[in-house]
Amino acid sequence: RARPWHVRPAPQMRARCLLQVLVSLTSGAHAVWQPPRTPANEPCPAALVHLIEYIRAEANLTSAKMVAAIERAGVRAVDLEPWADFDHPAEDSYGRKMIYEDGTFEAMAMSWVPGDVSAIHDHGTDMYHGCVKVFGNFEHTTYATDGVTLKMLTAEALRAGDSIAVEHGLIHQMANGDNGRYMSLHVYARPRWVAERGVTDDTRIFVPRAHRINIVNGGAFLAGPSREVRSSTPGLLADFATTVRDRMFTTKRVQRANAAGAMIEGESASALLADLFSARLSHAHLLDELAQHVTATDHQVES
Known about the structure:
Layout: H1 11-27, H2 46-57, H3 63-73, H4 77-80, E1 95-101, E2 105-112, E3 120-121, E4 129-134, E5 138-145, E6 149-158, E7 163-167, E8 171-176, E9 182-189, E10 203-207, E11 212-216, E12 229-234, E13 237-238, H5 240-259, H6 269-276, H7 279-292
Parallel strand pairs: 6-13
Antiparallel strand pairs: 1-2, 2-9, 3-10, 4-7, 4-9, 5-6, 5-8, 10-11, 11-12
């Protein structure tokens, strides 16, 4: 299924990349590579071209090498501005634009206005190496799951210029950390070339408030449109910290969308608020969480 129009590369770019690979496979010759162009059909910023050229040429790619390559290329926030999408649709919880995609790796520019936040997500079954560089203040949270239970691991503040490695299986969530408008660069790669699948296809979206895991091929949007969900698995359980954090972020997102005159499908700000402060969530769930970390003799587990 095709990805949303706002994350697909230009048709001519995809055709050019496929042609290069076919020529290389059939004739052994190396086609002349042409750098991508901006949405306004202007030359791609030099720093991004250098980064893409390095990743294309590196035979033994790792996430650490990708982070180092971004630093060497000197990618700046201004380099991402041609792909800025601060006026993204309300149903998308942040802006997402493809810079480059060739079947082996993809580079995307994300735009974040105050209140923008991703869903809790991984990066699909194919993605093995990646990195994110932020150009502003962000909240970054990581999680772990055994397939049924989702638990929060770490929460940290990212500052402008910070980079993080994205390994296969990472589950995380990113959010704009203050009232600024920021961009971030996301680069994801897989071990082999595949034409018919995006690098981050089959991304898992964890939805604690609905106790399910959704599979999508597009953006990792919090409370995103249901039409993007390819399949869904019920039965997800989440720890207390994850549950409260999910309700809080979702409530703020729905309230912000409603204030802009937009409705978020399947979500009600009043219902989310009522649930966030309900006795069921704040009392029973907390006691259950504490019980999991205290032994029968009232000693803390894993202290």
